[in-house]
Amino acid sequence: MTEFSLSDLENIVRERAHSGDPESWTAKLFARGIDKAAQKLGEEAIETVIAAVKGDKHALVSESADLIYHWLVVLGISGVPLSDVLRELEGRTGRSGIAEKASRPKG
């Protein structure tokens, strides 16, 4: 198996986003805008949770792939590069998750 990364997928999403290809789900999501893309992200998140709770590993893998794809579409439509998210995650690695969460503004 070749090494496939989230950056590779982000590049594919970017390339297909404005391709105008009528067969491209990515192009259709970008054309429909953030509301539709965010809705799909939410649906995939729920399906991923259901697969995890059921203990269905095959479905969990499949739904996780759908979730990550739709998350990257939402980031792309929003103009947020994956590198920003990775930088945020990297910044959190030096402290505990509990301390990081406690430091967030309330509200």
Largest sheet: none
Task: Give the fraction of residues assigned to helices.
Answer: over 70%
Q: Tell me the name of the CATH class.
A: Mainly Alpha
Task: Flag low-confidence runs.
Answer: none
Number of structurally distinct domains: 1
Looking at CATH, the homologous superfamily is MazG-like
N-end to C-end Cα span: 45 Å
CATH architecture: Orthogonal Bundle
Tell me the β content.
Answer: under 5%
CATH topology: Helix Hairpins
Q: What is the typical, i.e. mean, pLDDT?
A: 93
Task: From the alpha carbons, calculate the radius of gyration and give it in angstroms.
Answer: 16 Å
Net shape: globular
Structural overview:
The chain is mainly alpha-helical. The chain has one domain (6-103): MazG-like (Helix Hairpins), CATH 1.10.287. The chain contains 6 helices and no strands. The model has no long low-confidence stretch (mean pLDDT 93).
Short description:
The protein has helices at 6-17, 25-32, 34-54, 57-78, 82-92, 97-103. It is mainly alpha-helical. The longest helix has 22 residues, at 57-78.
Per-chain topology:
Elements (H helix, E strand, L loop, with lengths): L5 H12 L7 H8 L1 H21 L2 H22 L3 H11 L4 H7 L4
Helix pairs in contact: 1-4, 3-4
Which descriptors apply to this entry?
single chain, 107 residues, mainly alpha, Helix Hairpins, 6 helices
